[in-house]
Amino acid sequence: MGTSTTRLKMAVIGQGHFAQAAVLPAIAQLEDVELAALVSGSTHKLDELGARYGVRTLCDYDQLDDLLGRGEIDAVYVAVPNDLHAQMTMIAARHNVHVLCEKPMAPTEAECMQMIRACEQRGVKLMIAYRLHFEAANLVAVELARGGEIGEPRVFSSVFTMQVRDGNVRTQPRRGAGPIYDIGVYCVNAARYLFRAEPIEVSALKIPGRAPRFTSVDEGYACTLRFPGERVAQFTCSFGAYDRASYQVVGTEGFITLDNAYEYTTEMTLHVEGTHGAKTRTFHKRDQIAAEIAYFARCIREDLDPEPSGWEGLADVRILQTMLDSARFGRAVPIELIPSSASSSAPTRRRPDFGQEIWIAPHEVPPLVDVERPTK
Question: What is the pLDDT of residues 263-287, one digit of tens each?
Fold first, then answer.
């Protein structure tokens, strides 16, 4: 990019529900980011969305190499199914294009490392789209937990459930599909940023499910993570239960509860009972996706290392893979942590704090093209 006033030219790869409902309108809100290209396997989507957002550069996935090789795109937002994250990231890195990739980072640790190395070798930024790292309610919960309001945090408990539609990509026989990757990652990441630590052992129980939509993926998982200091995090994620997204952190002197903790379309309610009494606060809906894209653009302009980085994405994927191993073996499985010395390029581990909070007004959900909500 040229000067600090130059607009970041971004291409969005994948035009599924989340991209259409959240990513495209988020970019349209930002003055310093330009929606410069759309990539999809659907000509109809490209034509409709290109006309709506005034985007002239439209291409199929097979044309991505050519598109990025022209030098016209500064960054990409990768919003394809999980098993394609690594492939799209590697193509972008090959052409010196910065990458903001949806979570989970990839289905395997090996693919995560390939993504990190490819971006390091080409000197491009790699950020994983943990939008809650910039969202006020979760960051206030972080500050309360680390600031002693509830004493020493001891127990984390969470539920993230939804009724996924038949035929949705989340239930298709693809690598990285299923609830543990799609929504379990939120619970794992929340436990890590609230405890400010890494788990050392996990136990997981899978819930196979009886409905036909769970032929290729399990309905849900019930998981326990043991952290240093004999702290414990427990969560249940499911594609076959009523919509819920909440967590509670119980400390030695109080507790914190956050309702709608992982959502981006609703307000959130934070309740704390601790050393200063009981308080409840409502956080109104905001554009979480625009906030993380704005931060990513700043990292590129100012040559900052993003938080959350590829290493943050890798840490979660290692835990998710260990959970799948635990469910398969029927026993607790220790986790081999990633020390900062694992690589000369591995950064000192950073965790989100309130200094990362970004507020951008919400937008209306636009008409969707050839997609439907993932839940019933």
Answer: 999 999 999 999 999 999 999 999 9
Query: For 104, what's the count of Cα atoms within 13 Å in the CB-facing half-sphere?
Result: 32
Long-range contacts of 48-51 (CB under 8 A, 24+ apart): 48/369, 49/15, 49/20, 49/24, 49/369
Instruction: Quote the tokens at residue 215.
Output: 């032929």
Six-digit token pair at 289?
């996706």
* Average pLDDT taken over every residue of the chain: 95
pLDDT at 3: 41
Strand pairing class (255-259; 268-274): antiparallel
Element (H, E) at 235: strand 231-238
Residue 2 has pLDDT above 50, yes or no: no
> Cα–Cα distance between 323 and 64 in angstroms, integer?
34
How far apart, in whole angstroms, are the C-alpha atoms of residue 351 and residue 261? 18
Task: Kindly tell me the sign of the dihedral angle through the C-alpha atoms of 325, 326, 331, 336.
Answer: positive
Q: Is the pLDDT of residue 327 over 90?
A: yes
Measured at the CA of 41, the angle between CA 36 and CA 43, to 5 degrees, comes to 75
